[in-house]
Structures are given as structure tokens and as C-alpha cells.
Amino acid sequence: xxxxxxxxxxxxxxxxxxxxxxxxxxxxxxxxxxxxxxxxxxxxxxxxxxxxxxxxxxxxxxxxxxxxxxxxxxxxxxxxxxxxxxxxxxxxxxxxx
Amino acid sequence: xxxxxxxxxxxxxxxxxxxxxxxxxxxxxxxxxxxxxxxxxxxxxxxxxxxxxxxxxxxxxxxxxxxxxxxxxxxxxxxxxxxxxxxxxxxxxxxxxxxxxxxxxxxxxxxxxxxxxxxxxxxxxxxxxxxxxxxxxxxxxxxxxxxxxxxxxxxxxxxxxxxxxxxxxxxxxxxxxxxxxxxxxxxxxxxxxxxxxxxxxxxxxxxxxxxxxxxxxxxxxxxxxxxxxxxxxxxxxxxxxxxxxxxxxxxxxxxxxxxxxxxxxxxxxxxxxxxxxxxxxxxxxxxxxxxxxxxxxxxxxxxxxxxxxxxxxxxxxxxxxxxxxxxxxxxxxxxxxxxxxxxxxxxxxxxxxxxxxxxxxxxxxxxxxxxxxxxxxxxxxxxxxxxxxxxxxxxxxxxxxxxxxxxxxxxxxxxxxxxxxxxxxxxxxxxxxxxxxxxxxxxxxxxxxxxxxxxxxxxxxxxxxxxxxxxxxxxxxxxx
Amino acid sequence: xxxxxxxxxxxxxxxxxxxxxxxxxxxxxxxxxxxxxxxxxxxxxxxxxxxxxxxxxxxxxxxxxxxxxxxxxxxxxxxxxxxxxxxxxxxxxxxxxxxxxxxxxxxxxxxxxxxxxxxxxxxxxxxxxxxxxxxxxxxxxxxxxxxxxxxxxxxxxxxxxxxxxxxxxxxxxxxxxxxxxxxxxxxxxxxxxxxxxxxxxxxxxxxxxxxxxxxxxxxxxxxxxxxxxxxxxxxxxxxxxxxxxxxxxxxxxxxxxxxxxxxxxxxxxxxxxxxxxxxxxxxxxxxxxxxxxxxxxxxxxxxxxxxxxxxxxxxxxxxxxxxxxxxxxxxxxxxxxxxxxxxxxxxxxxxxxxxxxxxxxxxxxxxxxxxxxxxxxxxxxxxxxxxxxxxxxxxxxxxxxxxxxxxxxxxxxxxxxxxxxxxxxxxxxxxxxxxxxxxxxxxxxxxxxxxxxxxxxxxxxxxxxxxxxxxxxxxxxxxxxxxxxxxxxxxxxxx
Lengths: 97, 480, 495
Known about the structure:
- The complex is a heterotrimer.
- By secondary structure, chain A is mostly helical.
- Chain A has a single domain, classed as Helix Hairpins (Orthogonal Bundle), CATH 1.10.287.3510.
- Chain A has 3 helices and no strands.
- Chain A starts with a helix and ends with a helix.
- Helix content of chain B is 74%, strand content 2%.
- In chain B, helix 12 runs antiparallel to helix 16 (403-428) and helix 15 (385-399) runs antiparallel to helix 16 (403-428).
- Chain C contains 21 helices and 2 strands.
- A two-stranded antiparallel sheet of chain C has the order 1-2.
- The mean pLDDT of chain C is 89.
- Chains in contact: A-B, B-C.
- At the A-B interface, helix 1, helix 2 and helix 3 of A face helix 5 and helix 6 of B.
């Protein structure tokens, strides 16, 4: 097995785990984390796409893509967490009533 | 004076508008309206250019693909841009009046302009990674709009929407990764050039599933009804009328550049559409609240668009996309009118429980009339654009001998008559009122916007021939 | 004055453009609304008269624009269209007067007259549609415009009736859409042309053409109230009297019957339809409807319901005349399109007057109403006798030609059918007249429901009753419906 294959399969596996979590998990936070896993898996696959057997230089484009992907995911996570907190506050208020 | 390329303006005007509306919260509404107007102007310039040249291609920073990013406008994409700008402008005008809450007023405009940026980016984009970024932008802005009212139901629905939307985008991203692994390119031209292979099929499958999730095709529609029903009226109008269309548009493009490998998949897509029409119809019949009914009707209409896509099988795809595109445009205009009208009715009466609509002694006549006009287009009665879309769908299915699609469309139409007539009964019954019929509160700006949209949805049907020839400009699909 | 090809468009637009104005008027602007209503209706009658004169000279107007590739929105004023337009224009004017009187103090007048106007625009569109596609557009518009009129009262019963009406007519419309699409896919055109457009298709695919006939005529049969698609009509009786009058005499059932004429004469062509073996079953269906409607009418005590079942029966005379495939019967059918409209509108307006003026809604309450409302009841009686077929009244003329046509086509049973139907007509109409004129109302004088009706209610039925007498008595005068009908039939039978 070449390193890129191992890395790529790992990426797919991580994505799959994330996917199962995102679909099955009940807890809101767990589902966010599962989505994070998905994004990491997708990132792996993109990084593999950059791999060239040495001594060739790796392809720089996927790196740029992965960085963009990370930025997007960070903002998405922030929004999701903010929503979860807001929802918890609203539900807590309801319980008080 | 140097003219700036309208393609660039279409993309960046709303972006700058979003930033300006965010940093100037007091003037957000006027900044926002101005930005939408200016974007509309840029789109109008694009219409002119596409009419003259067939297609307009702009390379960002002067870099050519595959390394650089190209933006391309052809008949279909400009039709989508124009629909977005037109509907967006009218929804904005309605929002000026109907958003009373200060916080809603403040945040609506930056989010909506960001959404507009994302959608314009989708319609102009020519490479799949950029499309991924744009659908994430759309997702974040759309979730923001969903939770704008801040109620518990809205936030809960918004969170569900968020999960579905991000998951859809990530599935798409995974597909993008596969494509890059296989071809080393991300532009549409690279997709067309790619040899069919297992990896490319997997990539297509991932991307398509992601898109279907985002556009809410049955059975991946689970997030839509609550999200669209609980948002504030202008947000619902944007979400139902415009947002789901972005993913649909990408689906149409993608399946042209990477054809579905087997006839059975086309049939499957159509079957899912049929499922949406039937299941959504049943749910709309059972819905207790007006906005929820309208949201379920969106599920039905999305299904109908996919039936239009599949109406004549794989060989018919070169024509079927036109039927799908007509239905997309028709639904965009009519559904935004309907949601705005439903919002007005809810505001005036104070609730939107269908069973109690006829108990109210206030009858927002104009909004109810608007709702009925929009329903005419959504049911697909002549001469509305919805009718033309449905006609085109059934014509193609019949000519290809696919009677099952004709049958499903007819059943769906009858069901839509049944669930909308529940609402009309609520509007028109007068023997259960609690008091004397109160005076109609008169005109409001928030009434004018949906009424204009609804009239447009009906009268655009008379312009179907020019619309059809316009969307074919630049050969969006098919050989040159 | 120069001839304008836009004359049909103007006629359509008079009522189409009046509608939004009427919607926008405030409830209180009664005088302005009445002015607009009557003004537009009068202008329309004038325009129609002008158009009729031109068409009578052989001019055919044709306006079209492309809606979809190869598919036009097309208006065409041919002699057959004129028949229907003149009926609707004249009766609209009269019904407008009646409605203004009837709804004087009622709620939602702006809405009522807005849809009323739209309804007439749809009827004119149906009459002038130059192809089945355009016909479909106005056919659906008619459904949508009449629904709010049917449920105008806003009661639970009205809404139930409205729902049934909507389900029947929209389902029928959907099947018509299917048929129109089928025609378009099979023939590549939906244009109406005397002699039909389907000869090539029939030669190629006889079965498809037969199915198309069943689908199209079945769809139109819903509005024409052919048994078994008639159930909506008696239920829709909850509508206010002027709406019932319009529904029965001009708009809805007539649209169905007129559509059947167009389809049989100008989509299939009468010879083709006959060759397909479709006219005989249609004639049988019409015959069953004629007898069934009359039988049901006998048992109804509610006046409007009795009249409604009578419509079910009478409208099928038109279908029968078409299906007999004889030019003489066709004359009867087309003349009946006009005659039935005049007779039935008279009766409905009279029934409305009885309800308004005396609170009489049932046949059993009709004792002595002739003395209380002599004008109204004279009009009613004239129309009823005409309906039964007393010579030389309007109904007799239609029945005479239908019977002749039946003999001409070699169907002797038509004579028996017409005699039987006339007998049944007499059984359900004569007792009403007997009660009205020869029994003593007595106790009703004290009922609080009694109030004077104004001239706007009293005059219209008398006017239409006079027309009933005129079209029968002067049937052979130039420009009488019968004469015009002969002109149309010569075209449709390509003589």
C-alpha cells in the first residue's frame, strides 16, 4: 500500500464515521462534531490529491482548497454553536415558566 | 471612463452591500435596498450582453482556467440571476414595511445581501470548488435568516436546517475531492473532458446526494417544512423562492457535464420527485398552519421540478431541462409571493391556524387575493408560468410515452387544488366570525410587493416563448 | 370607419379590464360601480353588434401571438363564436341590471362584480378561442371566476357546494388539459378549423383518435352537466339568483356545450367523428341525460333545484343535436344554445324575485304567487311554456329542428325521446303554473318576508321573456338566432 492510498482510505473512513454520526446522533453537540469529522475526512482526500511520489513537488492547489475548507468549516461551527447556546437558553427560559 | 464588467458587479455589489449594511446598522435598510437595486442594474446589463453575445465569460484577475477562476453567464444563468434580482428586490421592498422588530431589521439586510452574493456566485460559477464555497455561504446566510425571528421553533428549525445544509455541502466537497484526485482539475471543462470511471461515478453520486439534500428532494426534505414555516415572512419568501433553487441549478448543470451513467438513475430521480409530490401533498392536506402548508407545497414543487427533469428519460434530457427551468422560475416568483402574502395574513389576523381563519373578523382581502393568485400559478392553471412549465413537462412525457409522469403530475395538481381550497374556504367563509366584519386596514407597502410578484407569476406565462428562447442562449446544455 | 383586426380583443378587454377596476372600488361607491358595470356592458353589446354585422358580411377576425414554440394564443371571431358572444353580451347586460338590484344591500359587492365581469370575459374568450389551447385558458379562467360567485354567501353550505363545484370543474379542466396536450402531440396543432384537423391522425392511429374524443368530450361534459358528471349543478344552486342565472344560461354549462360543438365540428369534423363511431354513443349519453334530468326535476320541491335539473336535461338537447350528425339537428342544437339561455335565465330571475319579494323558495309555497307578482310570473310562465315546447315559442323551434334532424339521421327514437321529454317538462312545470295562477295564496299576505321589489329586479325577466317570444315568433327573420344558425351550420358542414 502506498502512503497516498492509506491516507486516502483513512480520509474516506473518517468521513464515513462522521456521516453516520451526523445522521444518527441525538445530541446537538455530537452532531456538530460529527460534521467536523466529515470535513476532516474530505480534507484528507484533498490533501491526498496533492501528493506526488517523491522527489516530485506536491501540488499546491489542494492545499489552498483545504485551507479554504477549514475556514468555511470554522465559521459554520461557530454559527452552529451559537445556535445551540441560544436554543438552550430559550429552552431553559421555557422550563422556568 | 472605464466600464466595470457587469459579471464582476453582479458578484461584488451585494458583497460590498452586505458589509456596508453590517457596519451601518442604522442605515441597513436603505443600504440594502440600494445594493439590491444596483445588483439588479448589473443583471440588466448582463441580460443585454447575453442577448447580444450569447454568453459572457470573465476571468477573475486575468487568470485562465484550470488555474484561474472563470465566471460565465449564459441564457439560463442570467435567467436565474434575473429571477433572483427581481424577486429579491420585491421581497426587499416588502421587508421594508413588514420587519418591525429593530433587531430583525438590523440583521436581515446583511444576511440577505450575503445570500444574494452566494446565489449570484452559484449562477456565475464555472468550477466546482467555488460552487462548494458559494453553497456554504448560502447555507450560513440562509440559516441566519431562518432564525431571524429568534423564537424557539425558529432556532430549532434553523439548527436542523444547518445540520442538513452543512452535511450536504460536505458531501459535495467530498465529491469535489474525488474529482480532483481523478482529473487534477475543478472547472466544468475538466468535468466534460474526464473519462468515465468508478471514481468519477462516486464523485457524481456524492455531489448529487449532497445537492438533493440541500434542495430538499424527498426523502431528504425533512428539514425544509419547519425551517420555511417558522422563519419571518420575507425570510421564508427568500428561502422557498430562491435558496433551494441554487442547489437545483447546480444539479442541472452538473448532470449535463457529468451525465448520469444509467437510465435507471434518471428514473430514480423522477421517482423521488413523484414521492415528493405525493407525500408533500398528503402533508399539505394535513397541515394545520398556513405557512406550514405553503412550505409543504414547496416540497411538492421541488418534486415536480425533478419529474420535469426526468420526464423523457436520458435521451430527453437535452430538452427536459427547459421544462425544469421554467418550473424553477415559475415557482421562484409564485412561492415568494405566496409566503409574503401568508406573512401578511398572519400579521393582520394574528395567527395562521387554517381552521380558525374564518373566525377572524379582520379579512386582509388584498393579501388573500394575492395568495389566491400565487396559488393559480403553483397549481398550474393557465395562463400562469406554472401552467406553461407543467404543460412543457407533460408534453415531453407524453411525446416520449412516459404516461406515469403525466399521471403523477395530474394527481399532484388535483391534490394541490384540494389543499389550497382548504385555505380559500378559510378566506371566504363568513358565518363563523366572532364579531362584525372589521374595516379592511387598507393598503400597505407589504401588500404591494407580493401582489406584484403574483401578477408577474401569472403574466409571465404569456411571455413563455421569449423566456424559452432566452434561456437557450449560449447553449447552456447541449452541442453548439 | 376602418376595420380593425383588434375588434375581438377590444370585446374581450372591455370586461377583462373592468374587472380590476371593480375590485379596487370601495364597497361604498355603489353608484360609480353601477355606472361602470352598465356602461361596460352596454359598450360590449354595441361592439358585439358591430362585430356581428361584420362577421355576417363574411369578415373573419383573427388575432394571435405566440406563447410557446408553435403554440399560439389565438382569438378568432367566426360565425359560431358570434352565436355565443351575442348571447353572453346581451344576457350580461340584463343580468347586470338584475344583479345590481339583487345585491343592493348585500356585502362584498366589489368582489362580486369584479368576478362577475371576469366571468363574462372568460365566456367571451371561450367563444372566440381560435384553438383548443386558448379555449383551455379561458375555460379554466371561467372556473376560477365563477367559484367566488358560487360561494358568495360565505355560509357552510355555500362553501361545501363551492368545493364540490371546484373539484368537478377543475378535474374536468385537468382532463381537458390532458386532451389538449394529446391533440397537440398527435396533430401538432390545436387550431379549430371547419371539417376538423385530425384526418391524418385518424388514418394513422384510429384508437388514439377515439381515445382523444372520449377524453375531450368527457372533460367538456363535466361543465355541460352530462350524466354522470352532472352532480355539481344542482348543488351549486346555493349561489345568489343572478349567479345561478348566469351559470345556467350563459356561462358554465354553455361553455361545456359550446366546447363540445367546437371539438366535434372543428377538431374532429363531423364526418370524422361519425367515422370513428363516436357520435352514436354521445347521442345515447345525451338522451339518457335528457330523461334523467327531467325525471329528477319532477321530485324537487326547491324551485331552484327543480330548475337546475331541468337545465341538466335541456342543455343536453344541444349535445344531442351535435351528436345526431345531421345538419338539420345541428340547426336545432345551435338555436337551442340561444333559446335555452333566454328561457332559463328568465326562470331563474323570476325564481329570484319570488324569493326576494315573497320569500317563496319552494314549489309548495307557490300558491297564488301569480296574483302577487303578475309580471314576474307571466315571464316565468312564458318561459316554462316555451321550455315545454308550445308552438311557436323558442323551445318548440329547437325541438322541431331536433326532431327533423333525428329523422334525417335515421334515428326514429329521437321523436319518442323529444315527446317523452316534453311530457316530463310539462309534468314538472305545469303544476308550478297551476299553483301560481289557480290557487289561493291566502296566508302569505301576513308573512314578514314580503317586500316590494324594484324595477331592476322586475324588468329583466320580462325583457328576456319577450325575447323568448320573439326568437320563436320571428324565427325566420334576418339576424334571428335561427337564421344565424343556418349560416353557421352551412360552414361547419362545409356546404
